[in-house]
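Re: the 275-residue chain
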Amino acid sequence: MTESHQSITPYPDVNAALSATLAGIQAALGDQLIGVYLHGSLANGDFNPRASDIDLLAATRDKLPAHLLPELASMHAQLAGRFKWAGHMEVSYIPLAALRRYDPANCHHPALRVDGSFDIDGHGSDWIIQRWVIREKGIALAGPPAAALIDPVQPDDLRRAASGILGEWWAPMLNDTSRLQDSEYQAYAILTMCRSLYTLEHGRVVSKPTAARWAQAALGETDAALVERALNWRPGVELDALTQTLDLIRRTLQRAGVHYAHANTQPTSPECAGG
């Protein structure tokens, strides 16, 4: 990270982790590295130090040889022991040929996961949206502007991606509500539905708070109150909004034209809902 990048975020501990991670990636990859880009909530304007992770993309010249992967895994593990935020980081390593546009036939790439494991991950529809965020809002820690590496992502591509994510990730939760028993995940789901609805309506991606304020005006009084509760949620606060959250997910799926299996979404007790 150059001198100008020392304060790339308002958080000194985040900046320290970013600087160390960039140096580690550069040392491990050498000439294979094209650039490193900060994206996700820190680039999109909705970073929450209590709940967010750090998202990085490392653009590589070619597909990385297998012998480099253990070295990268070891480097990230060592940094996680030294820097708090290096242990709350996701890093995807994508070669230029695959980065330019999302191709479901070429979507398996090395990645550091937020749980600290390192493996080859398959990228789903969300990486269409990730490419838009990286291209339009991503912060280059090293290398050329991301717009030089990624083709423009069109509004209808974003709409299709939002629908894909809703079908891939959120529709199954109408039948298995185990994740949604947690108040933090309920708040996350509510705000994600707001952002999905915004993208479906406008063909753009905005931060969760921006989408939430739009949704409060667009969805009506009952939903506005639910969204406000999600915006104001803090650790230790019980949201107790499972039924309302499931209903908002269901209506968002319908707006996206996503077909899903009908389920009993009004459990009589936590046990009936999967915990």
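The radius of gyration is 19 Å.
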